[in-house]
Amino acid sequence: RHWCFKRKYLQGKRGIEKPPFDLPDFIKKTGIMEMREALQEKEDAKGMKSKMREKVRPKLGKIDIDYQKLHDAFFKWQTKPKMSMHGDLYYEGKEFEIRLKEKKPGDLSDDLRTALGMPVGPNAHKVPPPWLIAMQRYGPPPSYPNQKIPGLNAPIPDGCSFGYHAGGWGKPPVDEAGKPLYGDVFGSTDNKNFPSTPAEDIDQTLWGEMESESEEESSSEEEEEEEEEEGGETGLQTPVVGDQGLATPSGTASVGGAGLETPDMIELRKRRIEADMEGGETPSLPYQVIPERRNDRIGGSMMGSTHTYDIKGAGGRREGKEGAAVELALNPEDLDMDSDAMALKAEAALREQEASLAKEDLSDMVAEHAAKQRNKRKRQEAKDEKEKSKKYKEFKF
User: Fold this and answer.
1) pLDDT-based confidence at 319, cuts 50/70/90?
2) Angle at 377 between CA 374 and CA 383, to 5 degrees
3) Average pLDDT of the residues of the chain
4) Which of 155, 157, 296, 297 could anchor a disulfide with 187, C-beta 3.0 to 4.6 Å?
5) Count of beta carbons in the 10 Å neighbourhood of residue 172
6) Is 151:157 a contact under the CB 8 Å cutoff?
7) Which of 129-133, 260-264, 300-304 has the highest mean pLDDT?
8) What does the pLDDT average to over 96-124?
């Protein structure tokens, strides 16, 4: 609501009776209204006992409509309701305004013809409107200067005549020389005095149609043929030089005449597998099998298991085969060292790595965990004995 309005929003519609909701025509055509009325009459004719029985055990399927009718109503005959345009602001009385988009000046509706006492039907256009004589006297309406009005600036229909008799079209407005004032009212097509505006050529072809597959195939074939013809016409012609044969034109070089030879066999296997097979050894696998070791006694270990794996043996086997991987940090000036000095430095780094691994012993953690478990078990046993003795003390015959 705008700040300058005195009345509250929609207070001007208090005296207007709101019409009840009306079903759209495409839903009325299904016959649902008649079916509901018949069902309502049947319900009103029932007694109280049958109504209560129906309430306790209701019946379904009282109104059965053909599904084809429903489908056609919503997907075939459905019409769009009247809606406001995007961005329009609603105000009081907007729905009662006359929509003038469908109206054109000069077109008389049947209701207006009936109100003016004019006939309605196929020959209604042969009867002049009552305001034609006033227009012939005072001129065309200033709001529509280019409007074609029969009897004023356009010829009257065939079979009609000028005059003031019943059905007559009055007197045409002419000057002293007998020439029309406002337009070619006699239909003489005098281009000198009344030049006719040329009709615009409007392209009426539908531009949004989808082409069928056959048309697309034919158009693509035509395009290919045109391209082939163009390619044949634009190609270079080799000139004939005497009797010796053909000569290549200057400025063009022939592209490699002999193509690449196709190999007899394509090698898809990896080089590493071939080398292993030629060496006669077992081919190296992308994984390593760790030997399994059985333990008959678990003891007090934290996460004991009868099945363990010999990781040291696997590491030793890998070292013997490929050499141990040692992480070595080098300074830029040490890059020029010889192989012997580099090997000594790698051995020193390997010793430090083995020493650090030997220091990491989990025996302390295992012993600490076992002691905690033992203390917890003792506390639980003491608690159970205390509760047992308390039960015996409280019992009485």
Assistant:
1) very low
2) 145
3) 77
4) 155
5) 19
6) no
7) 129-133
8) 86
**What are 290-307's pLDDT values in tens digits?**
888 777 766 666 677 777
The DSSP bridge pattern shows strands 240-241 and 307-309 to be: unpaired
Query: Residues 225-237: pLDDT tens digits?
Result: 777 766 555 545 5
User: What does the longest C-alpha to C-alpha distance in the chain come to?
Assistant: 148
Mind listing the pLDDT tens digit for each residue in 143-183?
888 889 998 888 898 888 899 888 889 988 888 888 888 88
Neighbouring CB atoms inside 10 A of 156's CB total 21
- Residue 163, helix vs strand vs coil: strand
Helices (H), ranges, the chain: 25-28, 32-44, 48-56, 67-75, 110-116, 132-138, 213-234, 271-279, 311-322, 339-359, 363-394
81-87: Cβ within 8 A, 24+ apart: 81/24
Amino acid letter, 259: G
| pTM (two decimals) | 0.32
| Mean pLDDT value of segment 298-325 | 62
**Residue type for position 364:** D
Round to whole Å and give the CA distance between 46 and 63. 17
CB 202 within 8 A of CB 175: no
SS3 content of the chain, % helix, strand, coil (to 5): 40, 5, 55
Q: What amino acid is encoded at 119 in this protein? A: P
Query: Band of the pLDDT at 320, cuts 50, 70, 90?
Result: very low
Question: CA separation (Å) from 395 to 178, 357, 385, 388?
Answer: 142, 62, 16, 11
- Cβ-Cβ contacts under 8 Å for 23 (sequence gap 6 or more): 32, 33
Exposed e or buried b for every residue in 126-138, given b needs 16+ CB within 10 A? ebbbeebbebbee
Checking phi first, is residue 247 left (phi over 0); if not, alpha (psi -120 to 50) or beta? beta
- Distance from C-alpha of 314 to C-alpha of 285, rounded to nearest angstrom: 14
What integer pLDDT is reported at residue 370 of this predicted model?
Answer: 92
